[in-house]
Amino acid sequence: MAREVQVTKASSLQTSTGQTEGMIRQGAITDQSDKICASVMIAKPHSSSAVHHHGEQDTIVYALSGHGTVVSEAGKKKQDLAPGDFALIPAWAEHQEVNNSSEEVTWIISRSGRAPVVDNLAGWEASK
């Protein structure tokens, strides 16, 4: 693994990590450490991701801009994120990102793994 400081320029972000419709996920720091990775998630206005989880990866979200919502607990719990807010999404936690506003939402994502895992589901599986 990397033994020196690694920098990823904004112009080099890769839109190649797990995608869900309405969301743009850009890899920032991937495959450079066995223990952590980072990405940028941009939610287009009036969009929502598929219900999904991140497998064994714990996820920390930092809300950079816009006002979005994390939906969890089979759609019953809705938690709003404003710029400057953080969220912890534990491994295997089914959730959905929602942007009900007319502006883009940008979140910075850090995960406990070499590369981001996004496992899109057909719906709220845990509630079945």
Describe the structure.
With 128 residues, the chain is mostly beta strands. It has no helices and 11 strands. The chain has a 5-stranded antiparallel beta sheet with strand order 1-2-10-5-8, with no helix packed on it. The protein has a 4-stranded antiparallel beta sheet with strand order 3-9-6-7, with no helix packed on it. The chain has a two-stranded antiparallel ribbon with strand order 4-11.
State the total count of DSSP E strands: 11
Class computed from helices, strands and strand pairing: mainly beta
User: Helix segment count?
Assistant: 0
**Could you spell the SSE succession in H and E letters?**
EEEEEEEEEEE
Q: Mean of the pLDDT scores? A: 92
> Which stretches are low in confidence, meaning pLDDT under 50 for 5 or more residues running?
none
Largest sheet: 5 strands, antiparallel
Shape: globular
- Radius of gyration, whole Å: 14 Å
Distance between the termini: 41 Å
Percent helix, as a range, is: under 10%
- Our estimate of the beta-strand percent is 35-45%
Spatial strand sequence of the major β-sheet = 1-2-10-5-8
